[in-house]
Amino acid sequence: MKVINDIKPMQEISEFLRRSGLKIGLVPTMGFLHEGHVGLMINAKDDCDIVIASIFVNPTQFSPNEDFNQYPRDFLRDFYICKNAGVDYIFYPDATAMYGDDYKTFVNVTDISNVCEGVYRPTHFQGVTTVVLKLLNITKPHAAYFGQKDAQQSIILTKMIADLNIDVEMKIVETIREENGLAKSSRNTFLSDEDKESASILFKTLNLGKTKILENDFDDKQGLIKKLKSNIETNSPKAVLQYIAITDNKLMKDIDDIKNYKGEILISLASFFGKTRLIDNILFKK
Ligand code: AMP
Predict the structure, then answer these.
(1) Contact assessment for residue 90 and residue 252, using Cβ atoms and an 8 Å cutoff
(2) For residue 23, with 0-12 CB atoms within 10 Å meaning exposed, 13-18 middle and 19 or more buried, which class applies?
(3) 30, CA 20 to 30 Å: which among 37, 51, 149, 284?
(4) Which residue in 248, 251, 260, 245 sits closest to 284, CA to CA?
(5) Alpha carbon distance 168, 117 (integer Å)
(6) Sheet holding 276-285, edge to edge
(7) Is 37 designated active site?
(8) Predicted local confidence at residue 118, as pLDDT
(9) Which residue, by CA, sits nearest to atom 22 of ligand 1?
(10) How many other C-beta atoms are found inside a 10 Å radius of the C-beta of residue 1?
(11) Are strands 89-91 and 2-4 parallel, antiparallel or unpaired?
(12) CA 45 to CA 68: how far, in whole Å?
């Protein structure tokens, strides 16, 4: 496994691999890797000849009041996780290599970037789409692997790739969870064991929502969301919920008439536990 820090050498290696007829899979990450990231790497390894994992804590997707400086980082640990997962190249640039000091260009997927996460993190997705497009241009993959854990991110990136005719296959991989249902996340490192137990209410509540919808056991959408909120608040007083949304899985439009809706339904939510902000979702077909 090789570590590449600069853009030009990464582009040259990728170009060479492509010309050699090898299929490249890219797994973009912000590091502090866990089994969720490894799941993406294993999927990439199964489909592709060469796996490139990028590790870059992208400053443009954090707003000034967010946790960019506190975001956990441990390159040596990540190096061995990548090695064990069969990664061939780690692309590990710094912010200067990625943005220089007079950076001006951003990609924006309109509307979908402004709902749910976008309400609380208004510039977040513009940073994500921009860095992912740059990573695609640098690593030239045939396929790119993202997690269902970040459902809105996956929806927005799928739209960007379609709208901009980017020649890459988008692969979305299932969420890997702790035994109690808590979605694995680099930010879980900030949770105490007690918080981790308490935060398992998020996935339990998403499942409750799914069951209620599939069994038609609710009056209307507002009533259902209220019930889900109170399930979190009563079972986990430390949770400070930001939103629960029930939307489609293409444009993240609210589904108002859930009872008559046919197709994929996404329930997503975000909640603070102390200073740690967690997101999760459940996707199912009705
Ligand atoms: P991050 O390092 O948090 O930016 O995540 C990098 C990629 O890993 C994204 O595509 C995430 O959706 C994905 N990911 C993060 N956590 C999980 C998880 N628990 N299960 C599956 N994929 C995940």
Answers:
(1) no
(2) middle
(3) 284
(4) 248
(5) 25
(6) 239-247, 264-273, 276-285
(7) yes
(8) 98
(9) 147
(10) 15
(11) parallel
(12) 30
- Which residue is closest in CA terms to ligand 1's atom 14? 147
Tokens linked to 189: 């490192």
The token pair at 100 is 């220089």
Distance, in Å, from the CA atom of 224 to the CA atom of 201, rounded to the nearest integer, reads 16
Pocket around ligand 1 at a 6 A CB cut-off: 29-30, 36-37, 39-40, 146-147, 149-150, 173, 175-176, 183-186
How far is the CA of 235 from the CAs of 93, 189, 271, in angstroms? 43, 22, 14
Q: Specify the residue for token string 């939103």.
A: 243
Geometric angle at alpha carbon 62, from 60 and 66, rounded to 5°? 155
Choosing from 34, 37, 124, 142, the catalytic residue is: 37
Spatial CA neighbour of 239 closest among 192, 267, 278? 278
Helix (H) or strand (E) holding 245: strand 239-247
Instruction: Tell me the average confidence (pLDDT) per consecutive run of 10 residues in the chain, 286 residues long.
Output: 98 98 99 98 98 98 96 98 98 98 97 98 98 99 98 98 98 98 97 96 98 97 98 96 98 97 98 96 97
- Distance, CA of 270 to CA of 15 (rounded, Å): 40
Side chain identity at 176, as an amino acid letter?
I
Q: Ligand 1 mean position to 215 CA, how many Å?
A: 31
pTM of the model: 0.98
Q: How far apart are CA 125 and CA 267, in angstroms?
A: 19
